[in-house]
Design goal:
The chain is α/β, with parallel strands linked by helices. The chain contains 17 helices and 13 strands. The strands form 3 sheets. A 5-stranded mixed sheet has the order 1-2-4-3-5, with helices on both faces. A 5-stranded parallel sheet has the order 7-6-11-12-13, with helices on both faces. Strands 8-9-10 form a 3-stranded antiparallel sheet. Helix 12 links the parallel strand 11 and strand 12. It starts with a helix and ends with a helix.
Length: about 450
Amino acid sequence: MSRATEFVQQFQKEVHQKDPNQTEFLQAIDEFLSTITPFLEKHPEYVEKNILSLVTEPERLIQFRVPWQDDAGNWKINRGYRIQFNSALGPYKGGLRFHPSVNLSILKFLAFEQVFKNSLTGLPIGGGKGGSDFDPKGKSDAEIMRFCQSFMTELIKYIGPDTDVPAGDIGVGGREIGYLYGAYKRIKQYDAGVLTGKPLDFWGSQGRTEATGYGVAYFVKELLHDLNDDFTNKRVFVSGSGNVAIYAIEKLQELGAKVITCSDSDGFIYDDEGIDLTLLKDIKEVQRERLTAYAKIKSTAQYHEGSVWDFATKADLAFPCATQNEINQKQAEQIVKNGVKVVAEGANMPCNAEAVDCFLENAIYYCPGKAANAGGVAVSALEMAQNSQRLSWTKEEVNEKLEKIMRTIYRSCRDTAKEYGAGNNFMLGANIAGFEKVAKAMIAQGLV
């Protein structure tokens, strides 16, 4: 056993002993550690510096209460969080998630992944994440506004355009960012660069809404180009029906693919004629209805309860764009049976470890979220640049920059995997490429 292997195994045990109940965080750590040994064998100085201990421990972990009042006058309390994980490459950057599932483990996993995702973009941003166990579903605009104002009253102590720049995530869209920004501005005055994903009326970026979904499509476009192929007539499974899924569908259709599914937390739509994007947008973005409404309107659509990944029908590509751990080993085996050749993660860690192993064992091209879904944070960083310069770029300019960034990320993952003899293991490529840049910066800055 090499020294690097022994070091990684011992370190893994120590992390599990330190945070035994943080399931999602430990899953992210295990996935990362499973790929990093070849790099440490080639660069033993990183073992000597014990850099893994530094890079896997958040620089700062903030938890606070968020009191707010509902429309009936009842007092409510939620938990708020901000994980400032790593600032070696720049100010902390990562979204805010409002969802009942939010806890410390989930946010630590998301922030840890964000560090390497942001590194891969090549932009000067560190990694962080935050949010609350508040559920925006079923709440009035007034209730959401009061919650956001209360949340920002505490969060404001820890953020700033050169310190920590939050954005949106699940449950936090333009409406919520607007309320959060208004509360910040009232206390600290105008500072456009403190939040990204802002509405266009006050210095949001063109193309930010579409960026994550477009980005994952661009990543796979580069992969297909390497295979002398393209999206034309490809049958595609997409999960989710939120922002990422909708705009992944939009770009995939634009590039010639036929997207046949989308889903929500209750079930999924199968439409063999292809998803009607105009109808989907109306239902999810305007009416804010469940997907059952889609099947009632579109006669060719079938609505099924349960997971789309249990569904048996032929497909070429799969884009999980819903949430973490939505695909397990059994579902991965069904995906293989369906004939899928590429799995690209639009969500963060939607495939568990057994599912990923299944894809790799069956020679499926697996595109991990920390690389494939980096388009959102990339355009957030571009929004920061526009805010700093007091400029506004056109949608075409932003989209051109986004595609170039995703091309660079893809090539970095591909070339790093080949450098370390891992073939088409883009997970290894993404982890090593993202880690190396952060680790170099951390060592150069000293023991901080």
